[in-house]
Design a protein that fits this description.
The structure holds two protein chains of two kinds. In chain A, 86% of the residues lie in helices and 0% in strands. Chain A is built from nine helices and no strands. Helix content of chain B is 38%, strand content 24%. The chains are: A mainly alpha, B alpha/beta.
Chain lengths: 271, 268
């Protein structure tokens, strides 16, 4: 009896593993198809006389980008202060607290600003995208688009994707500035280092490559947030509960993918 | 239908077989709908009528069979051709499916914006005209969430007919409405046909509404068409299943005791 239940447990685990693998492959394929079709519509929409509307791109950019500015300013400013506190504390042991400027400059531009901004946008807009698409699907609004002759990829996916690709790097630059400013304020208070000296030193140590590293990452993160949110939204099943599930899944999945992608990129960009 | 030979078929469905997952929903359905008629597709829950409608709208690809709308086989034509065809089709969904982020007016105007190059003012006039037809004049600046159930259906109807389509599909017009609103909507459908000479396909399970508006009724049951005929002929049909649908009798009146026990206990 024991042996039999062991065998059936083993079989169930294999079955479950197979199911997960098939589902992941299917989903990855779906995400890349969304990307391909969205790019196709962006490129060929005009030619097909069904352009991706500028007004809807601006609408999305407003929600994804402009409205996120205050919160991103506050968060990155706080991160800058936090880095300054930790940096000064740690470097004090070596009597090198003056080097904190270098530490803040590099870690904010290369790592913290892209990561914090992307995680915030994933929580703010990734969830909103999944919820909105899911609700539209459940209310037959996607069907309505299709029967009117409006391709949902052209009407929903392409504007969101483009707006995300434009907004996220801009937000990262804003995050860079806010983070560096936060660091400057704390360094001024703790070490009495004047702001102009702080920024002179910051621009001495910062190279274009450091900022570019953050920006390259943010393009990838933008793709992740938009496509994961959209794909989860389009796969909603089962009413309000399904929309809730898809929203949660979109956020968890995009934040996980962002952190993993960040690790991979940091490894390759620093070789 | 002796005179059907002279009439122009607008919808021709031939041996349509569809699956949902592994389950077969439609078992080779054939149906012809002629220019200018109102046909009601009737059937109980799970009869396959919604599936048939979704295929007529080109939202799914069937397993086999063909669907010709206005002479074009939508199972075979290109996306571009289907896009052109959609200009001549209007659809009013069961829940309205108005876009929640747009006002009623913007909803109705959307097909015009996508398919025509008219100037804003002309589009607004056409929108108001259609809202007038469905008795929603003056409501164009409201959001769909501010409308009642009956108003949402009428707004959806206005959006469906704003391009003056040749073919109008209406899913469950009277479901969820109070009797007065339901009757008003039936009147509206009749009015639209006589004013614009549309071919109208209505999917419903409401008998009163079906008898009132239909020229012909198609009865669907478990994925098969039982009959397609005039209202009177359907009413007087001696088919057992049609009669039980018309007289609202439960489907399985005879209970098999053993089978019942098996279902309850879950033992096979």
């Amino acid at each position: 009896m024991d042996e039999r239940s062991n065998v059936s447990f083993f079989r169930q685990s294999i079955e479950r593993l197979g199911f997960v693998v098939v589902r992941s492959v299917e989903e990855t394929g779906y995400i890349f198809r969304l990307l391909y079709e969205a790019l196709e519509w962006l490129a060929l929409g005009k030619q097909r006389k069904q352009p991706v509307r500028l007004s809807s791109i601006f609408n999305e950019a407003m929600q994804i980008g402009i409205q996120a500015i205050p919160i991103i300013g506050i968060l990155c400013f706080s991160v800058g202060i936090m880095l300054a506190i930790q940096g000064i504390e740690t470097l004090k042991t070596f009597g090198a607290e003056g080097q904190v400027v270098l530490g803040i400059a590099l870690s904010v531009t290369r790592e913290f600003s892209p990561l914090i901004v992307s995680i915030l946008v994933a929580g703010r807009s990734g969830s909103a995208i999944a919820a909105r698409v899911g609700t539209m699907l459940e209310a037959q609004e996607i069907d309505a688009l299709r029967v009117i002759g409006i391709n949902p990829v052209r009407y929903l996916v392409a504007p969101i994707l483009l707006a995300m690709l434009v907004c996220l790097p801009c937000l990262v630059i804003l995050g860079d500035a806010a983070g560096l400013f936060g660091g400057a304020i704390y360094t001024k208070i703790a070490l009495n280092l004047p702001l102009n000296v702080y920024f002179d030193r910051t621009f001495d140590v910062l190279s274009i490559d450091d900022v570019m590293q953050g920006l390259i990452k943010s393009f990838v993160f933008a793709l992740i947030i938009a496509l994961v949110g959209l794909a989860n939204g389009f796969q909603v099943q089962g009413g309000a509960e399904g929309v809730g599930r898809a929203t949660t899944r979109a956020v968890v999945m995009s934040i996980s993918l962002i952190v993993i992608a960040d690790m991979v990129f940091t490894y390759f960009l620093n070789r | 239908m002796s005179d059907s030979a002279e009439k122009i078929p607008v919808v021709e469905v031939e041996s349509l077989v569809t699956h949902y997952g592994a389950r077969q929903i439609l078992n080779g359905v054939s149906l012809k709908i002629y220019q200018g008629e109102i046909i009601v597709i009737m059937g109980g829950s799970g009869s396959g009528k919604s599936t048939l409608l979704r295929h007529l709208l080109g939202l799914h690809k069937p397993t086999s069979g063909s669907i010709r709308l206005l002479g074009k086989d939508i199972t075979k034509i290109s996306d571009q051709e289907l896009f052109e065809l959609r200009k001549h089709m209007g659809v009013a969904f069961q829940g309205g499916a108005l876009f929640g982020s747009m006002t009623v007016g913007e909803n109705v105007m959307l097909p015009l914006k996508e398919h025509t190059e008219l100037d804003e003012q002309t589009m607004q006039i056409m929108t108001r005209l259609k809202l007038e037809v469905v008795n929603l004049a003056g409501f164009e600046d409201l959001m769909p969430s501010e409308l009642s159930g009956g108003m949402i259906k009428r707004a959806a109807l206005a959006r469906a007919v704003v391009m003056d389509p040749k073919l109008l599909f209406f899913d469950e017009p009277s479901a969820g409405l109070d009797p007065v609103a339901a009757v008003e909507l039936d009147e509206l459908i009749l009015k639209l046909r006589s004013a614009l000479n549309m071919t109208i396909v209505v999917v419903t399970h409401e008998l009163d509404s079906a008898f009132k508006i239909a020229d012909r009724i198609t009865v669907l049951d478990h994925g098969d068409i039982l009959m397609t005929d005039t209202v009177d002929n359907v009413r007087h049909s001696d088919n057992q299943r049609i009669q039980s649908l018309l007289n609202r009798m439960p489907r399985d009146s005879a209970v098999d005791a053993d089978e019942y026990l098996r279902r309850l206990t879950g033992f096979n």
